[in-house]
Amino acid sequence: MRVSLFGIEIDKYNFEEGVKEGINLLQSSSVSQVVTINPEMFAQAEKDSEFKKIIDNAELVIPDGVGVKIALKLKGIDASRIPGIDFARKLLEYCAQNGLPVAIVGAKEEVINKAVENLKSEIEGLNIVYYRNGYFNDNNEVYKELRNANPKLVLVATGSPKQEVFIYNAKNVLSPCLMVGIGGSLDVWSGTVKRAPVIFQKLGLEWLYRTLSQPERFKRIFPALPLFLLKVLTYKEK
Ligand code: UDP
User: Fold this and answer.
1) Confidence of residue 162 (pLDDT cuts 50, 70, 90)
2) Would you say the CB of residue 162 lies under 6 angstroms from ligand 1?
3) 3-state DSSP call for residue 38?
4) Is the CB of 159 under 6 A from ligand 1?
5) CATH of 2-195+223-234, one of 1.10.20, 1.10.3110, 1.10.260, 3.40.50
6) Is 190's C-beta closer than 6 angstroms to any atom of ligand 1?
7) d(CA 181, CA 106)
8) What pTM value is reported for the model?
9) What is the pLDDT of residues 134-156, one digit of tens each?
10) pLDDT by residue (tens digit) across 203-212?
11) How far apart are CA 170 and CA 121, in angstroms?
């Protein structure tokens, strides 16, 4: 089932259902795109119609952060939060168990190297057939390398909206696979950035932890959530 927020359709699944849908898409006969949507991306979609079009065309749109969950709640809709990092991890495990090749693109060179090393040692049987850092100018070169590697799951961590655009444009050029934009997940998997303690995760307060532990992000992130929620209350769905 899909629900609408700021004119954007979001899939309403609990975590297990969302993962199941991801697994279904892994078996699809075309390239599919998963968008893990957060408040900043709604703001981007509002000012950038190309970006909105990309989200509208995504096969799966899941509410990543607590902000989207609360926003839907304000509209009387109960939705689960599906953290992109946990969703992607489940898909990696599924691929490892089922012999499906995986590719990962994104983050700084030392970050992706360490993340790949950690993932390989933590997930038995994980077959990473291609990876590279997220700082490149020529998307076509990366598409070409991906075509040669032929993965079934491609995780892209180059930040938003860059990763969504990269995935969208890959739809016409890659063999069938599932592509997921995973933001800063490689920073966490590499151990470069610490994830919030479980208690913060359970309470949906990861954003608060992140804000406190990275004060330089405070100015950008902190006002975003209350402003986003205020907008939900005043926005009229068309
Ligand atoms: N990143 C990248 N290529 C770029 C810009 C960013 O690979 O051109 C990576 C960056 O190294 C980080 C991830 O994308 O691992 C998320 O970036 P950022 O922190 O800017 O995004 P946010 O988490 O704030 O959405």
Assistant:
1) very high
2) yes
3) coil
4) yes
5) 3.40.50
6) no
7) 10
8) 0.94
9) 999 999 999 999 999 999 999 99
10) 888 888 877 8
11) 29
